[in-house]
Amino acid sequence: MTKANLVTAHTDDIPRDNPCAQCGTPIAQPDWIEPGEGRVSYLWTCHACNYRFEAVAIFPHRAIERPPLAA
Ligand SMILES: [Zn+2]
User: Fold this and answer.
1) Would you list the domain boundaries of the chain?
2) How far, in Å, is the centroid of ligand 1 from the Cα of 57?
3) What percent helix, strand, coil does the chain show, rounded to 5?
């Protein structure tokens, strides 16, 4: 197996069924998850109206794991 060089979100808190900000249709899961410092950005795409929006979850008491930098 080859090792995939992808960013993976280390969180169990992936929101689901987030209502579309425009038409209210529940979206099963975010298209893209981008972990940041103390926060995670979720990109949602509504398949009913093609509206895209971003939601940010803040985790003030949780450190996001980062891979150590190679020396
Ligand atoms: Zn929509």
Assistant:
1) 15-58
2) 20
3) 0, 30, 70
pLDDT at position 5 is 47
Distance CA 17, CA 24 (A): 10
Task: Express each pLDDT in 16-34 by its tens digit.
Answer: 999 999 999 999 999 999 9
CB 52 within 8 A of CB 46: yes
Distance 53 CA to ligand 1 centre (A): 10
Ligand 1 center–CA 61 separation, angstroms: 32
Report the predicted TM-score, pTM, of the whole model to 2 decimal places.
0.64
Ligand 1 midpoint to CA 35 (Å):
24
The DSSP secondary-structure symbol of 19 reads: E
Instruction: Please state the length of the chain.
Output: 71
